[in-house]
């Protein structure tokens, strides 16, 4: 709840307190206080400082297709900046056109997650970043081979040396993961209409969306979709239509983890369709109805579905700046 | 030779005439006059006006992977702006990881070409643009299907209507090709060091590069690599190591066209490796030596190879501006 106390947020709250609120406003205030605006940066780990040199290197590596076996797949292929930093297809397509088991999560705001991948098999972006390079159905390149490939380019020798000064052989897996993690921590989407609403701009979202916020709280969606990134980073069992994926169980081997998946962020959910771990759900309305049934045991009426959907649309933030790098 | 008379070029020439040239300068002037700086725009066809609306639509379509069968391959996959608008692998990788027969040509300055593709099977970008969408080894999607896919998105309905006003059903193959062609005509790289040299900045390139320019002329490279884009857009027979590609013959069926390929541009050649129709040549030095042997019957010495290579490096221009679009 640290971010709840951010100066910007308090300024917004102060504005409100100063105004002459009706009882209805007071009621809404209680709902608003259940949410937190998205900060401009996620928590930064002490062991991987957020330097400009690492951002630049990570930006290059994110767009680098030659660390894939085919030479044409980069992180940006599936985490495509033109498509909400995801791919907008049900399940990821990787090496030789193979189709993976799961829907590609957006990397937007992924630094706010305490568990990476749908099954949480990595706790942080440093560990996450290396997985897709080696995965047979994604980039399909052994990490050693990827590092050898990078080391062939003088520009990468220079950029790794600048990002990791005073290291004898900086082109290694740890530094590769760190640079990609640092770059990904810049890919945040603050100032969504809902953030501006939380910060005191009462006209930033529609009445329908405000009703959706109320329904979101009253129906208990907020139990799991909470905090600035609207996820608890915890694992919950869900039976999504068409999915036989065992989820978290594959990581832990514990019976109770069968069909459990990490709660996905709802930030930018309107531009990161399709939905669910298998991407089988095309529309937000359908996704809201399914979550009501499966997670809350409720049949939402059309009005409620439309209101929650309107609320979810207010979570699309400002897209982050980045460079299309000039690769060597 | 129209562009030779551009005001900018004449201004450069006038500067020179005004200066107190030595005889050596006069000699160099004769070499310089064999070349033409790259204009900011290529010739624009009367039947496809260069409007902002078409540029915007074409930019979206260029980055649109959902007009491929897999949903992840766009024009920008092989014509990658991070890689000199090409792919820097020997032969293009497309649908399901299939490897094509030929090296991906850069789209940079492709509006200056009078024949598109290595075999010139299309005369202009309007025709070229549609080929890779349908090609089995590239995007592998029938054009009708691609158009249906685009028509599903309201944003494309709007953008096609804006680009082609007063048309009843503007989402059609002709307009798709036109928008992509218009966008590609913005992808030009003027103001390379060699252009600045041609325009009067005598220090814009090194003495070694100037010697390379002389060798390029004296050895006859300029016979085919001429004009502002350093290509005659004509077809010449070449036996490249490792290639059995019949080239232009596949288009015309004429015996004399066997192994003929369109002269590639030398603009940005330093950043569009590897070389030759099969991409089997990795370095510029090697490419220069092969061209000397195969096309000119000459064995260049190391000094000449290095000088011509230094000259070719001066042909890397300013990379064009473009947007990573927010796709629907």
Describe the model.
The structure is a homodimer of 328-residue chains. Chain A has 328 residues and is mainly α. Chain A has two domains: 2-40 and 189-313, Cytochrome Bc1 Complex, Chain D, domain 2; 52-184, Cytochrome Bc1 Complex, Chain D, domain 2. Chain A has helices at residues 7-18, 23-32, 52-62, 75-78, 125-128, 131-134, 143-151, 154-163, 173-184, 193-198, 207-218, 249-252, 284-296, 302-313, and strands at residues 235-237, 260-262. A two-stranded antiparallel sheet of chain A has the order 1-2. In chain A, helix 3 (52-62) packs across helix 9 (173-184). The radius of gyration of chain A is 21 Å and the shape is globular. The A-B interface holds A 63-66, 70-72, 77-78, 80-83, 87-89, 93, 95-97, 271, 319, 324-327 and B 63-66, 70-72, 77-78, 80-83, 87-89, 93, 95-97, 271, 319, 324-327.
Q: Any idea what the CATH superfamily of the largest domain in chain A is called?
A: Cytochrome c-like domain
Total beta-strand segments of chain A: 2
What proportion of the residues of chain A is helical, as a percent range?
A: 25-40%
- Strand order, main sheet of chain A: write it out: 1-2
Q: What is the general shape of chain A?
A: globular
Q: Provide the CATH architecture of the largest domain in chain A.
A: Orthogonal Bundle
Please give a handful of descriptors for the protein shown.
homodimer, 328 residues, mainly alpha, Cytochrome Bc1 Complex, Chain D, domain 2, 2 domains, 14 helices
